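Sequence decides. Our protein:
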Amino acid sequence: MANSDKNILITPNKNASGIPEIALTGFGNSTISANIPDSNIGTLNFSTSTKNIFSIDSDQNSNIQLSIGSTTSGSFLELKNFGNLSINTPKTTIYGKGLKLSKVKPTTSPSVNGKIAYDSVQKTLVVSNSTTWTSYSSPTYVQDGLIVYYDASRPDSYPGSGSVVYDISGSSIGSGEMHGTMGNVGFSTERGGALTFNGSNSYIDVNNSSDLLRDFSGYTVEWYTKITTATACEIFGNYGPSFTTNYLWIAARYGHYLNGANPYFVAGPYTEAAPLEPGYTYHGAVTRDPQTRNTMLYLNGFLNTSSTADARIGNGINYRIGLDVNSSTAEPFGGSLYLIRVYNRPLTPKEIQINFESARTRVGL
């Protein structure tokens, strides 16, 4: 079945033990809606090697055991109107990473083998990092166009230890998942979770990102940081030694630079000119329109300044957070990185406000 836009009826088969069972596998890059009339389902197995979108509705509030296997990035499963729900998954799978629950009424005590469940009292997804449980409500940030997302408060993005920060955007752009490899980056439970940079040689290399933004791409890069050093605080870019002309440089204290187009911060609550002062928490965002090349720089949710970045973005090297690329010390970031998101389109001023509001209480703004 391919490219389906029809609603289909699913009747579970019984396995050898007589338990009803449904298997969802690859249908060839399809969008499939299905209705399940049965009042009780044993197991729903979700596994796909192609990009598929499934929306499964139970009109009988079916009880279900969901088993998630290996899935292709970009696949998505939505469950509607189910009753008691338990989930078995080999890895954390939450909003933005392949699963959405809608009008689901599971048990109060999560039944789970893996790292995800649903709390019917709080009406949130509950994610386990093997020692603690953390709840997440439906996402309040903009998801359309999101291609990279690191968030230190979410165990599925950073579990609290290790040298990898996981991309939870759900994007399938590029040659592979754009997880980040960290060097000399620490972790703090501050404000729900923060990646800490030492202002000297801390960095995150964004894997498989050399073609992430290129030529006259439209984009948005946004970040929540606390700045602690008076260094340049490079926050995202592919600019560095041997990569200077037509390469992107975004710094938490200065703003945006692309081949001479530099809408730097020129006003703010704590400074009258770039660079922004250390010792404070900031939300920053920069957008570029692919047609007009108009580049907007936002500070704490509001437009700060703008310019025209009428230049191509070069490719051939992965993006980096915390240091210039191909450098061990150039323009380092010092402070806490709470989250960073990259979009493949310019967010609107209203969307910037939505994203700003989504985490401002957490970071204390």
Observations:
- The mean pLDDT is 76.
